[in-house]
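Progress report, Aim 2. The chain analyzed during this reporting quarter is listed below.
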Amino acid sequence: MRLLQKIIHPSLTNISGNVFARKAVRAVVLDGEEILLLYTKRYNDFSFPGGGVSDEEDYACALKRELIEETGAQNIEILQEYGYVDEYRPHYKTEFDLIHMLSFFYLCKVDKDLGLSKMEHYEITNGMEARWINIHEAIKHNRRVMESKEASIGLSVERETVVLEMVVRELLHKV
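Predicted structure tokens for the chain:
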């Protein structure tokens, strides 16, 4: 799978130390210029549906599980690999110096009508909800959040926005 972007959070002075490694899968689901994203009220941003992969879990199974849990997606079809983002950022737990996140993105197709989501408690607490939104509006929104340096800004907004912009350049009129 091709590397889409390497991101090192600006607060990190180096990428060594006690590192927590995490792998995640994320879905790129387009319907014309509409894209299925998660809006999170706590961070005021849009992100791709997806999440962590356990050690023994198959990536395709993890992606389908996350899509169902977070969006209520039905008739999920994984079309192809898109690429991955290699990211280093601060870790909120004191026993780790940083987190090394590998996010694997896949192009997917789902029914436009979503079923009921089965979000985890922290996702509900953060005000996360699945939305079909115009991709240009989602990018504009995330860019405003980054430019205004909102106090609530999440650590993933840069990764999500970079990939959204790549999707526009590379895929928008090909899907």
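Residues 135-148 form the longest helix (14 residues). Helices lie at 59-71, 121-125, 135-148, 157-170. These observations will guide the mutagenesis work planned for the next reporting period.
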